[in-house]
What does this fold into?
Amino acid sequence: MDGDRAIGATYDCGGLDCEATVFGISADTGDELWRFKRQTQIVGAVAVSGDTVMFGTASIDDEFDTDPGVLGADGYLYAIDTSTPLAPTVLWRVPATDSVWGTPVVSDGVVYFGDLDGVFHAVSLEGDDAGTEIWNFKAGGAIVAEPLIVDGKIYFGDFSDNFYALDIGTREAGGPGSNPLGAGEWSFDSDGWFWATPLLNDGVLYVGTLNGKFYALDPDTGTEFWANPGEVDGQIVGRAAIFEDAGSRTAVAVPSGTGNIGAFIASNGAELNGFATDAGVKADLLVDNGVLYAHTTDDDLLRFKITDHGLFSCIDAETGAAC
Amino acid sequence: MDALFSRRLWIILGIAIVAAAIWEFNLIVINPMVNSLVLLDKILFSNFGLAIIFFTVTVRLLMIPLTVMQTRNMRKMSALQPRMKAMQERLKDHPDARRLQSAETMKMYKRAGVSPVGCLGPMVLQMPIWFGLYRAIFKAVPATPEGTANLSAILYGWNPAASDVPLDSMFIGMDLVDLVQNAPAPFNFALPILVGASMWAQQKISAMPSMDARSAQTNQMMLWMMPIMFGFFTFQFPAGLAVYILFSNLIGVAITAVISGPGALLGTRFGTSAATAAAAVEAGVPAAEDENKGEVIDGTATVLGEDSRRSDRQRARNARRKPRRRRNRRR
It folds into this structure.
């Protein structure tokens, strides 16, 4: 959501021929405001800065590629101008060394994103330098997870089982090509790939892996807070959510790609009764006003009371009918 | 006795392996294959095409004992065909023909040391491996982000290549995940032709000569129909699968050629046995002599088992004695 409009991206493939669409719709009426299409895949979500919408793509089918910048790259970060709704135009695009599946994140005039070759990019959004890479960092494996940026630190994980904390100041001082971890930076070696966006709450960084392990880390040093990581049955793809359980203890709900939503006490990782679902949850969880919202892989929207973990509402997301 | 026990043990072991492979197919067959392919990709210069070729060739080489067993059994069965045909002819008018023919057939198999399961068994054992390899290729290079995420559960933690995922699926200008018909020229039409041709060669070199004119005709038709059909199907296959089938066929032809001799491709694998035997059967072999005739015609007594070898030696001794007696009489 961006003010009174919702912006999203989707793609559809017939074999390897893919068509991706980025669209803007009115939040009030649901009417389409604009549409932008390219022959590619857009796996992640979009980032918005004013009228500029940014998204990562795979390679663009050469036959249809008339956009400015480097041709034939394996992936791009696109920036389009949506100020004239009927005809969104490409402002610039930055080539990547491989497809960009992750969601870019904008912070302080810089857009950050990772690619499947394991390169994490920082690209300027401002002035004449807009679309120019400021620095990059080579991680050990593919980067799909959306980064979390808090207090000058960037947190993200990759496919080499590593989770990184990069310091923006250190990176900018080092400039392009300063790969080794520097002052205020660390990496944490887990035993699974990272796909989910991390969550920071009350000085604790929560990160989940695709093999169902869930860690609580010190955001300054990367050391584990819990004696043992929490564990859910399936892959952790969506972002966890913080809630207060019936005993007013801070707890964290963790989506599982195949099973029930797990729950752990934030202070020590002790497992609580989870939230029972009929299908997996690969979307981010949301807690609001005593209710936990979950979107399942069966396309149902579930609502749980966080006090007793009871399901009190199920809506078919496609039809809006009760399920 | 020991040999019998050993054979039974092997059959039981084979059945147990196949059952286990079916029961835990992913765990036992596919996951190790996916890990091997990903590791090979890293070793072979991040080239997934080379990884497929190397892996296919290696698996086929490891299965040579099974292939040899199968080929030997087929050869024995082939050698028995003229005698079996003659026996069937001899007994066809008997009131209890079917039972007698069946009993005689089993006797012939036993005497020649042939096991019908010996032909089928290795093939059955190979089936899960081929099916697994086919699936492993597409699990190693998934076409969707979900498939890539699922790889995390398949790749072993100690696999040093696990962090190299997702792999590059391009190979000499082709995308191995894309359909062959979408590959750039000349691969889009060369691959189907090569797959068809290699399949023809594989069938030709493995085919058993048939005594029956009708089944020989059917075999001949299949020899051409299957490769042509498969060639057309290949247009709809992902290129990686086509590469896998092509190299699997090529190494199959090479292995069979080594086992049976390169003449097999020219239809002379078992010497002139098939043609000569067929001619003999057509001419009508006397029932009392058909066993001897079969062996002499085939010239393959060495593959007919211990009993046959023993009777060969006996006949040879008898043959040497008779002239001597005649000479004695002349004196």
Remarks:
- The radius of gyration of chain B is 25 Å.
- Chain B has two domains: 1-167, 169-262.
- The beta strands of chain B are 170-171, 174-175.
- The CA atoms of residues 40 and 51 of chain B lie 5 Å apart.
